[in-house]
Amino acid sequence: MEEQGCAPDIMTWTILIKGHCAAHEIEKALLCFAKMMEKGFDADADLLDVLINGFLSRSRTIGAYTLLLELVQKARLRPWQSTYKNLIQKLLGERKLEEAMELLRLMKKHNYPPFPEPFVQYISKLGSVEDAWEFLMALSVKEYPTVSAYQHVLKSFFDEGRHSEAKDLLFKCPHHIRKHPAICSLFGSAI
């Protein structure tokens, strides 16, 4: 193409990379991506989404995670919210909570709204009280998350039959959360 005087633009590169990803040729897609960067083109959120989905289609979730982190840090790229959500769900599906939490923090830095649903489901089934606490702190905008965030996590522990974990988490909560009527109603007179 270039030999015939047609210089590819970012859209051409994206289509080429997307084609390699669709054909499950991730290595070729990465080579095209590197060549594109050498030619002075900057990656955008669309191209990052294509690459991430290419990795995920080959069950290379950690590779997708590493690529996203690298491009956010080095290329100052701002991924789409849907890219974050998709990758978080895949990471949690592979029990990679720490990596998913890191993406949640990055989402927050990029001013996206929190994405608590898959975390609450994961933590209520497989997580520890410390995992729940770390998650709640990652959600907080100022000092503490909203009462409804605490309520959602505590209720999910109850729904999974993990009453002792719910109580342990409750005792880590600040006083104003422990004494809130919505929280008290979850525990009845047990607190």
From TrEMBL:
A Gene Ontology BP annotation from the UniProt entry: RNA splicing
PPR repeat segments: 9-43, 80-114
Keyword tags: Repeat
One Pfam family matching this protein: PPR_2
InterPro entries xrefs: BIR6-like, PPR_rpt, TPR-like_helical_dom_sf
Matches recorded under NCBIfam families: PPR (TIGR00756)
Name of protein: Pentatricopeptide repeat-containing protein, mitochondrial
Lineage: Eukaryota, Viridiplantae, Streptophyta, Embryophyta, Tracheophyta
